[in-house]
Amino acid sequence: MNGIIGGIAALIVGGGLASATVFGVVSSQTGTSGDSPANVNQPVIPYGSTD
Amino acid sequence: MRSLLPWAWSFVLAALLLGPALAPGYLLSYDMVWVPDLALRPDFLGVGSALPRAVPSDAVVAVLDEVIPGMVLQKVVLLGSLVSAGAGSAALVRGSMLTRMAVSTFVVWNPFVVERLLLGHWPVLLGYAVLPWLILVARRGRESGPGPALCLLVPLGSLSAGAGLVTALVVLGFGWSGRLRQDMRLFALLLAGNAPWIFSGLLHVGEATSDARAATLFALHGEGHLPAPLAALGMGGIWNAEVVPATRAGVLGVVMTVLIVVVAAAGFSRWLREETRRDRWVQVVLWCIGWGWAVFTWAASDATGWLVSHVPAGGLLRDGSRLLALCLPLFIVLLAHGAHVLRARVRDEAAALITAVGLVLVPIALMPDAAWGVSGDLAAVDFPDGYDAARVAMDGHRDGTGADGDVVVLPFSAYRAPTWNHGRKVLDPLPRFLDRDYVSNDELVVDDVLIRGEDPRVPEVRDALGLPTAQERARALAELGIGFVVFDSSGPHDGLADGPDDRPGIAGDVIVDEGPVRVVALAGVSGRSTPLAWSWVAGLGWALFVGLVVVGSMGRVVRGRTRQV
Questions:
Q1: Does residue A40 have a pLDDT over 70?
Q2: Chain-centre distance of CA B389, in angstroms?
Q3: How many CB atoms lie within 10 A of CB B12?
Q4: What is the pLDDT of residue B404?
Q5: Sequence-separated (6 or more) residues with CB below 8 Å from residue B223
Q6: Alpha-carbon gap, residue B77 to B18, rounded angstroms
Q7: B243 and A44 in contact by Cβ < 8 A?
Q8: Between A and B, how many residue pairs show a Cβ–Cβ distance under 8 A?
Q9: Contact status, residue B366 vs residue A22, Cβ threshold 8 Å
């Protein structure tokens, strides 16, 4: 019985961690990044942006 | 051996987070500028015309890199900060090894650490890393009085004004004994540990107010789906969206915040039972100050704008989320109790173990893009050859009057995004690479808004650069004590070129023209001296700071020998 519960828990926790990681990696690679490469030809490089 | 596990786990986390930043080279990101050999100069001691923003951190690095090369020192500081934060938080709590390791993960792998790292605020991170250890020794010192460990940890946690403020509040909270003489010693210790920036700040009190617009721009901000107050619950909410990991803007940011709240709530009852009343109060008060101030900057930016523009040193508080470090004591203990309770609630042993392991790993799973130098945003680079050539040439140069003069780097703007740094933004590193005092433009641009700087020499230099001819510019700059004008073509173009080759129109001797760097030495440079009183005041501050470190070191040695005997 313990083995079954442990297996289910492992499945849930491991599956959750794996899904979150895959989702996070995919979304971080495909989402719009706020950190666009700065244009070195700009007269002033802004310190940052709040948007 | 088991006691080394939190250190080992924290090391793994730190190495995974820093990734390519640990490769040979220098990590240059926003305000983080490290160079091979930072030269100690009067400005770093706090007697220059600019506000002492990098006092005492720059001077401490300048001294230490005489022993340890700057490149190695930077990695030791960054890696050491993260490892110390993780291991210190594990040492602060009781419970199973997995519970303590889970706390280490939450403390190292959170938005506060990642965002401050990207923004280059290493003294803030060092102060954050020292906090758990400060709590341990300050609590111990409540009975026996402040010991040598506190004399060493306080200076380490006070390498910038903001970090020093957090360090002082934590030490006062946990170390205040109610016995007058002992508390006066504690207060004196904190004053000595923060003396360089306090004393230098007093010298600059006339210029120590900031542009009110900065308060709105640097206030706590929301992240993705999280409004600002909720972002701050999960230690996020930095003003600069450019340094927020992409996952924080998505649903995972919400999940992480919910998880932190759920784990903390699960540990609430146990926290009430297990912690002393005194410690509970201190943890709650510090959390309220940290989170409360952050939210206040978001909710009442007009009020903070008035504060920073009217009260000297009010600018210390303009960065809303920086004080979130004060939330760390309660954050650590609630998460530890919560992890313990959640594990205990699972009856099945195997399932309980898996739950505990899950809690150790879940922060990484919810912010995976923080790994490997925040998805490659943190990477070590080498400086261009022209930098070395400029330093060597300027070392041996004296003008006809024998004066050295300070340096101005053109384009006259604070930040760069050089191609040799892979286009990543960084505070102009060239002045720090050289070994002279410099005038650096301290005006900042955020959201197309220009935030006024405080250094009175900046408008004077800008006026001189605005004169119509190369000869007039050179003469005016020399009268201001500027001996060298360096044009760095890897910076943004400033439109100051007289000729077709995009070079600055400043009359003088070209002593270096290599790579992106061209150095023009000016003639007839006026000497610039520091008022004697300033030297005495700053010297007193440094004497207190160094004295504290010496007392702490000697105390440790004496204690070590006594134990051996």
A1: no
A2: 30
A3: 15
A4: 79
A5: B111, B231, B236, B237, B244, B248, B249, B253
A6: 12
A7: no
A8: 155
A9: no
Mean pLDDT by 10 residues, chain B (565 residues): 90 98 98 97 92 94 97 98 98 96 98 98 98 97 93 98 98 97 97 98 90 95 97 98 96 97 98 97 98 98 95 92 98 98 93 96 98 97 94 77 81 93 96 94 94 94 93 96 92 50 74 92 89 95 98 88 70
Prediction pTM value = 0.92
Nearest to B546 by CA among B203, B151, B51, B171: B151
User: pLDDT value at position A36?
Assistant: 33
pLDDT at B387: 95
**Distance between CA atoms of B396 and B363, rounded to whole angstroms?**
53
Are residues B339 and B102 in contact, defined by beta-carbon separation less than 8 angstroms?
Answer: yes
Chain A contact set for B252 (CB, 8 A): 20, 23-24, 27
Cβ count within 10 A of residue B469: 11
Smallest CA–CA distance, residue B344 to chain A, in Å, is: 14
Residue range A28-45: mean pLDDT, rounded: 47
- How confident is the model at residue B529, as a pLDDT? 85
Residue that the structure tokens 């706090």 belong to: B46
Q: How many CB atoms lie within 10 A of CB B452?
A: 16
Distance from CA of A35 to the nearest CA of B (A): 5
My answer on whether omega of the bond before B56 falls inside 30° of 0, hence cis, is yes
β-pair partners for B484: B407, B521
Determine the pLDDT at residue B560: 77
pLDDT at B272: 98
Please give the C-alpha separations between residue B83 and each of B8, B105, B130, B429, B451, in angstroms, as whole numbers.
8, 10, 10, 27, 36
Q: Tell me which chain B residues have a C-beta less than 8 angstroms from the C-beta of A28.
A: 245-247, 368-369, 375
Contact residues, A window 1-51, toward B, CB-based 8 Å cutoff: 2-3, 5-10, 13-14, 16-18, 20-21, 23-25, 27-29, 31, 33-35, 37-51
CA distance B190 to B199: 13
d(CA A45, CA B115): 19
Q: Which residue has the higher pLDDT, B549 or A44?
A: B549
**Residue B492 with chain A: CB contacts under 8 Å:** 40-45
Question: Cα separation of B496 and B308, whole Å?
Answer: 33
B562 contacts B158 by C-beta, under 8 angstroms = no
Given a contact cutoff of 8 angstroms between Cβ atoms, the answer to whether B416 and A45 are in contact is yes
- What is the pairing mode between strands B438-439 and B380-381? unpaired
By the 8 A CB rule, do B210 and B315 touch?
yes
Q: Is B382 helix (H, G, I), strand (E, B) or coil?
A: coil
CA B532 to chain centre: 30
- What pLDDT, on the 0 to 100 scale, is given for residue B396? 76
The torsion angles phi and psi of B309, rounded to 5 degrees, stand at -95, -10
Residue in A23, A25, A35 nearest the CB of B242: A35
Q: Which residue of chain B is at minimal alpha-carbon distance from A51? A: B241
> Contact B354/A9, CB-based, under 8 Å?
yes
Regarding beta strands B406-410 and B438-439, do their DSSP bridges make them parallel or antiparallel, or are they unpaired? parallel
Rounded to an integer, what distance in angstroms lies between the CA atom of residue B487 and that of residue B485?
7
